[in-house]
Design brief:
This protein has about 280 residues and is an alpha/beta fold. The chain has two domains: about 130 residues, Periplasmic binding protein-like II (D-Maltodextrin-Binding Protein, domain 2), CATH 3.40.190; about 120 residues, D-Maltodextrin-Binding Protein, domain 2 (3-Layer(aba) Sandwich). Helix content is about 40%, strand content about 20%. Strands 1, 2, 3, 4, 6, 7, 8, 9, 11 and 12 form a ten-stranded mixed β-sheet that branches. Strand 6, helix 6 and strand 7 form a beta-alpha-beta unit. The longest helix is centred in the N-terminal third of the chain and has 16 residues.
Length: about 280
């Protein structure tokens, strides 16, 4: 009996000394913020190893369903009918999206109609030019960014026109836009910032994407960055660290310190806009 108790105690001690490994994957826009948080969290919790993989939002949700990720990062909302009621969502950050164009494009911005029609109808020309066709570059169906673009600027459940060129990643979109005269694409502000003057960030409906216009609700191309996890499928020790990491990212002090540098805005701004009736429920 004493031997059994001793073995049980040693087994528990061995388990408590083991590390926890967390796999995070998904939206490329959210990855920089999450990577910054993982460095801080791992420093505070040395027995926790966190691996972040950049992939599309849809691929991340599938990996979460298959047990290959503990946390999925997504630009878009996952419906319970698609992924099951066991998923828990946490709003991480308020994301801004922008249209970017080749630096040689003469336009400073897009109207609401242009942002829709350029991606639906073939044959558009850039205003102010005689022979510079619009070359729309988009992400594929697996992309959360593409879903956000369709929802915010096209609407009505419509898909992109067949004339649009599809790219596999946001970096591919930005590289193509930067090197193709007349090209235009839709990306997260965080990724546009990385490319600097290699692309031109356009206004939308006459409004520039600035901290001031995001906070006051006048810039409309906004959505939430989300983290999904499945509490019922995780061992208690893993669940504790998963929810600890998410709590760090959502911490107001961390958000103020880190969100702006990663092209995002504090999620509290979304709550404020909702309270003022300037943002839809998400």
């Amino acid at each position: 009996m004493k031997r059994a108790i001793l073995l049980g105690f040693l087994f528990i001690c061995a388990l408590s000394g083991q590390g926890v490994e967390i796999h995070v994957g998904g939206s490329t826009a959210l990855a920089p913020l999450v990577e910054q948080a993982t460095v801080r969290y791992a420093a505070q919790h040395p027995k926790v190893t966190i691996k972040v993989q950049r992939m599309g939002s849809k691929a991340a949700m599938e990996a979460l369903a298959q047990g290959r990720l503990e946390i999925a990062l997504s630009d878009v909302e996952a419906r319970p009918v698609e992924h099951g009621e066991s998923y828990k969502v946490s709003h991480l950050i308020l994301q801004a999206f922008v249209f970017v164009a080749h630096p040689g494009v003469p336009a400073a911005g897009l109207s609401v109609d242009q942002a829709r029609d350029f991606f639906l109808k073939k044959g558009a020309q850039w205003p102010g030019t005689e022979s510079l066709p619009v070359v729309p570059i988009v992400r594929g169906a697996e992309s959360g960014t593409a879903a956000v673009q369709r929802h915010l600027t096209i609407g009505g459940g419509q898909d992109f026109g067949a004339h649009c060129q599809t790219r596999a990643s946001t970096d591919d979109v930005l590289r193509t836009v930067s090197s193709t005269p007349g090209a235009v694409g839709f990306v997260e502000l965080s990724n546009a910032m990385r490319f600097g003057t290699r692309v031109k960030v356009l206004t939308y409906d006459g409004v520039s994407c600035l901290a001031r216009t995001v906070k006051d609700g006048s810039y409309p191309l906004l959505d939430l960055g989300r983290a999904y996890h499945r509490p019922s499928t995780l061992p208690p020790r893993v669940l504790k660290e998963v929810e600890g990491l998410i709590a760090l990212i959502r911490d107001p002090d961390f958000q103020l310190e880190s969100a702006f540098g990663n092209g995002g805005f504090p999620v509290q701004w979304y709550r404020d806009l909702r309270a003022e009736g300037l943002a839809p429920a998400r």
